[in-house]
Amino acid sequence: MKRRSLVLMSVMMVVATLALAGCGGGDKLVVGTSADYEPFEFIDEDGGYTGFDIELMEEIAARLDVELEWQDIAFDGLIGSLQSGKIDAIIAAMSATPDREEQVDFTKPYFIGADAIITADGSGLTINVNEDMAGLKVGVQSGTIQEEWVDENIDAEVSRYERAEQAIMDLKAGRIEVVAMDYYAATSFLDQGGLALALKTEFSGEHMAVAVQEGNTELRDEIDAVIAELQAEGFVEELALKYLSGD
Amino acid sequence: MSSAVWRALPYLANGIGYTVLITIVALAIGFLTGTPIALARVYGRRWLQGLAASYVVVLRGFPSLVVLFIAYYALAGAINLPPFLAGCAALGICSSAYQAEIFRGAIQSVEPGQMMAARALGMKRVQAIISIILPQALRNAIPGWSNEAAVVVKDSSLVYAVGLAELMRRAQQINATLHEPLLIFGVTGVLYFLLTFATNRLLSWVERRTAIPDMVVAR
Fold it and tell me: What is this model's ipTM?
C-alpha cells in the first residue's frame, strides 16, 4: 500500500507539473470576448468562435501580423481581466463609455450600434420612448450600457443577468416585462419567436470599440490604423451586411 | 432532439476533458495539502494544531467562487495565473480544507493502541504514522473522500466564471445560440452525473481492492 500510494502521489504530481508546463506564453495577441452574444460573438457548430467582432479581430490580427489567441470570459469580467493583464485587448460589442474610459483605453469606434426594448409576444405593453420602461420590471445584462442607462434615467424594478440569454429566458417565463439590450443581439433572439420588438432605439450611443490596457497607446494606435484601413476598404461594412443584416 | 443540438454535442462533450483534468489536479492539490494538515491537527504541537484548525475553519467558510476570484483577479499583480491553473489552485485549496477533516476523522478512527504497539516495537513516531497509522487511515477515508471527489467534479463548473471553456461554459455558449435550455442543460446534467458516478464506482473499486482481509472496519 505504501508503494502504491507513492506511485499515486507521483502520478498526481506529474499531472500538476504537466499542467503548469502547458501554459508557457509566446509572442501573441490575447483577445478577450464573451462568446455568448450572437451575432457579434458566438460559437459555430464546430465550437469555433465566430461573428462580426471575431472576424473583424481576426482580420486586424492578420494585418498586424500577430498570432491571435481568444480568451472567452463572461462579459462583466472582461475589463477586470484586461486590467490584471490576463488579456491584451477586448472585442465584445463593447461601447466606449466614459466610465469604462477611466479603466481602459479604447480605439476609435469600429461600429455604431443601436439598442432595442423587447417584450414578450402579446404583452400589450406599448413603448414609444425609452422612458416608458419606468415602473416596469426591466431585465438587463450586468455591466452593459443598457444597464447603466436604466439605472441613471428611470425608476424601475431592475433584474440584472450575467448573460443576455438569461434575461430573455426570464422574459419568456414572465418574471420580467421588458428587456433592454443591443439591437443586433436582440434580432437573433427575436427570430426564435415568442418575443416582440417594442422599440428600436438608442440609449447613449453605442460606439463599439476595441479596448486595450490603460496607457497601451502603441497597441491602440496600431489597431486604430488597421480599423481605419478596413473601414476605407469597405471590409467593416461587408461584415455588417453578413452578420447584422436583420435590419 | 433537433439536429443543431446533435451537431453541438461533440463540442459539449469535449469540455469533459477540462472538467476531468481540473477535478484530478484539484483533488491532488487537496490531497497533498489536506493530509499534512490533518496530521498537524492530530499529532502536531499545540500551536501547529491551532494553525491547522484555523486553516480549515477559514477556508470552509469561503465560497469556492470567492477563492477562485481571489486567485484569478486579486493575485494577478503577484502571480498571473491562467484560468486553468487559477481554477485548479482555488478548487484544490478549498478541497484541502474538507479533505483535511476527512483525513483527521480517519486518523482518529485508528485505535490509539496501534500507535502504542508500534512505539513499543521500537518505531519512531513519524515511522509509526507513515507505516502503521496512515495506511489504515487512508483506507478508512475512502468513503468520505469519494463524497468530496463528487463535490469537486461539480464545483469544477465554477471555473467557467473566469473563462475556461469546460463543460458548463460550453453548455452556456451552445444555449446562447440554439436556445434549447432544457435539452442542453439536461444533457449537461447527465454528463456530470456520469462523471460523478464513474468517480464513485472507481473509488469503491479501490476501497475493495485495498481492503485488509479480516479487517472489515478498522477500529
Answer: 0.72
